[in-house]
Write a structure and sequence with these properties.
Bound molecules: 2'-O-acetyl adenosine-5-diphosphoribose, zinc ion
Mean pLDDT: 92
Low-confidence stretches: 247-252
Number of domains: 2
CATH topology of the largest domain: Rossmann fold
CATH superfamily of the largest domain: TPP-binding domain
Order of helices and strands: HEHHHHHEHEEEHEHEEH
Radius of gyration: 19 Å
Strand content: 5-15%
């Protein structure tokens, strides 16, 4: 990784006061959570995520879809936030800086690292709800299998995630839009940047002249929008980005 990239990114960071951190599945990869486009592993390798994560898949076999999400929630519970999540949380504690975390991820690793997540654009594994009366269930219900019935109306609980073809939670989307509209820096971590409308957010930032720093070992649809690209994994790049440059080479 060239220090030019890191130095450039640190200059942008030092000059910023309103930062949007926009994250995708790569943010959680080093915690052991497969990215969305990694081949599904284990018992799910014979299933196409596009069918599981869809209203049609749900209508077709709600028990299978519920079990898939319960398995993912159980897996998230068994891992811990990585150094990248912790770096984002540390950035959020810096005086004089407003940091807004907008994530496409449905895990709770940003929260468990200490960040306040302003927008879960694609929902959350830990927000199951009744598909009829809408009653929100406790996060612990997300790992229950078989699927429990709604305690209020007896109807069917569904995972609290956004499926293909469903609209994003309006409050989360509006807060994300507002944060991007007020940002003077956007740090985009671990996303292919191809799923809309979420992928529109880095485009809006760049179009408004807001510098975009991309953190991703591979190039993506965001790369062309980025002022600086930190070509490496989040758990290494984000702590490096936040390292205090006043320290000497050996970190003291
Ligand atoms: P993807 O799985 O599409 O992309 C993961 C991105 O993370 C890729 O660009 C990888 O290069 C990058 N990556 C992998 N390891 C990384 C690491 N250690 N550090 C940093 N980056 C790393 O995941 P998303 O772009 O988040 O939507 O997918 C966006 C949406 O597509 C998901 O939210 C999901 C899916 O359809 C819904 O479920 C609605
Ligand atoms: Zn109900």
């Amino acid at each position: 990784m060239s220090t030019a990239g890191l130095d450039g990114a640190r200059d942008l960071l030092d000059a910023a006061s309103s930062i949007v951190v926009f994250t995708g599945a790569g943010m959680s990869a080093e915690s052991g959570i497969p990215t969305f486009r990694d081949a599904l592993t284990g018992m799910w390798e014979n299933h196409d995520p596009m069918t599981l994560a869809s209203p049609e898949g749900w209508a077709n076999d709600p028990d299978l879809v519920w079990a898939w999400y319960a398995d993912r929630a159980t897996r998230v519970r068994s891992v811990t936030p990585n150094a990248g999540h912790l770096a984002v949380a540390e950035l959020g504690r810096r005086p004089g800086v407003t940091v807004t975390v907008v994530t496409q991820n449905v895990d709770d690793l940003h929260e468990r690292a200490g960040s306040v997540v302003t927008s879960h654009l694609h929902g959350s594994l830990f927000a199951p709800r009744c598909q009829d009366c809408g009653r929100a269930e406790s996060p612990d219900v997300a790992v229950a299998n078989p699927r429990p019935a709604c305690p209020l109306c007896g109807s069917t609980l569904r995972p609290g995630v956004v499926w293909f073809g469903e609209s994003l939670p309006s409050g989360d989307w509006l807060r994300a839009e507002n944060a991007v509209g007020e940002a003077d820096l956007m740090i985009v971590v671990g996303t292919t940047g191809v799923v809309y409308p979420a992928a529109e957010l880095p485009e809006r930032a760049a179009a408004a002249g807001v510098p975009v720093v991309e953190v991703n070992p591979d190039s993506s649809a965001v790369t062309a929008l980025a002022s600086v690209r930190l070509a490496g994994p989040a758990a290494q790049m984000l702590p490096d980005l936040l390292m205090d440059r006043r320290r000497g080479v050996d970190g003291r």
